[in-house]
Model the fold of this input.
Amino acid sequence: MLKRALAIISLLLIGYWIAQGLAGVPFGQDRMLVAQYYLDHVKEQTGAVNAVTAIVVNYRGFDTLGEVTVLFIASTGVGALLWRRKKQRTAKTEGSIVLTTGTRLLVPFVMLFGAYIFIHGHLTPGGGFPGGATIATAFLLLYMAFVQYEIPHKAFEKVEGAVGVSYVLVGLIGLAIGGYFLYDWIWQDWGFGVDNIGRLLSGGFIPIIYTIIGLKVGTELSGIIDNMLKEEVSE
Amino acid sequence: MNALAAIGEALVLIGTFFYLLSALGLIRMPDVYNRMQTSTKSATLGSLGVMVGVGIWALGTDFGSAAWLTKTVVIAVFLLLTNPISAHALIRAAYKSGIPLWEGSVVDKYREHLEAGEKKKAETPEASEETPEEGGEE
Done:
């Protein structure tokens, strides 16, 4: 009781403190310094209509590389923590026939939609991370509906590694051509798709990077699901 | 305001009305199964009304285009396909985890079916294990 009261009081104090800090921030006023630069120059400099993905991939691509690395480490960490010599699914009951049929019907559409999200990252909201998470959702559906489903491990792990390497490779090509890491050579040097900003074939290397990230995130989250759903079996 | 916009507004109104009904059903009904029954059905129908209504509404305005209707119809079809499946899975999980029916319920055929299956299994354990019925009808 005393513990809980103390926790509530301290939380209220912290909340009041944060609210005091936020009270000085002028919301709704035009206080943009860097953001205004992004908004003004995003189309000519990156070719993307979606300013968020342009910032995430182009202006601050290094952060995205870091996030992908974090995800990769998380996946590897889960794999290392739950490592067993022999593992199997523990699902005792199959999903009902409505669920399995629905899953069979829906999984291709979910995957298609995931691919749509990450391919259109420079045009519509979303990008590689939501698209990859959607694709992982499709595999989660398969895992949930069927007793015996297993992702194709060989292909998955290869894709995971290959796309991770290709992200760094794209950055290194930029380094070789333009002089710094993650330089957008497709847009800045080739001017590919200059005439059709707002259509699919534009946006410099944002679609390429986001396809890479989408595949990476999708395979990694599916791998985490796969690891977590399995238990050791005694021979 | 033209006819398309008016139809769209009417559909959105009907949809929100069904949303309200589903929320009411969630409060009003006595047990999990009745609540799921009222809420999922009317929420699905309400969403369909709202979504297709928004699409048609956008056709009637001067800034709207056919892309709106296409998008909303795609979302509506997806929801129409997924919502009943999720409701089914939820209900089935609720029943399997032993949540009782409303005390006013009269008949529980599924329990009878399960008990008959268990009896059969107890009599011939090998036969029933070798042929697990698809859909987990145990």
